[in-house]
């Protein structure tokens, strides 16, 4: 089975790119992550009130998935139970963790808010994506210092080679007080869908670090 | 009562992360859950915490809050009936 990267989406610095093409750029000025993600949600034309309840990490992943998954048509050619999800980041759900901590710091003002603490796990982000796109395959969330293309490649390859998944939606989604970054991509069997690039660590590294369009021939 | 309902709208929007809702567009007699404001089970827990945080009301063990959580108006009524009255003198 030849695995190919069939689509990818990047969100960073107030821009959303799909397969290397700029989808939208927020007006310069307010760089607040919540402001940007709400703007992106509205620009994407979504009608999903649950979005507003999500934490920033889940909203960020939602916007990337909403940009990439529907246009890819992956759910039309692969059973929902055969699409696995493999994600990672460096700081887990740090923004929600801190927000929750603030609600319980003071024993005299101790009011943990369920609307906040339900998001104090990064795999909730993956769950939100599953709910939105009705995906029921294996889900995995890993922590690493940075986007680890080798680890992602090995893990994903294992999922597909062992038959645990026919396709995988994968990526790196990180958000903290200093910034945010989402890099989502999907890998499928080349017999099922034409790919942009072969699924190799080199391809993943190149896509993660570059914004320009990359195709077969200019990536190792 | 109407002032309390308007206050509740703002507190619920803030505590339950519903900032896409316009307070003026919320019907105080519409169901809070499913239809209406579209709240879910997590929101029910958040409402319980809201009652304690802002009104000092602890949800009684073993007693359903379902009647109180029917709408904003029933919630406001519940608060008025259960809020602690400061001791005189």
From TrEMBL, chain A:
It comes from the Bacteria. This is 3-oxoacyl-ACP synthase.
From TrEMBL, chain B:
Residues 1-83 form the Carrier domain. It comes from the Bacteria. PROSITE patterns: CARRIER. Signal peptide: none annotated. This is Acyl carrier protein. The lineage of its organism: Bacteria, Pseudomonadati, Bacteroidota, Chitinophagia, Chitinophagales.
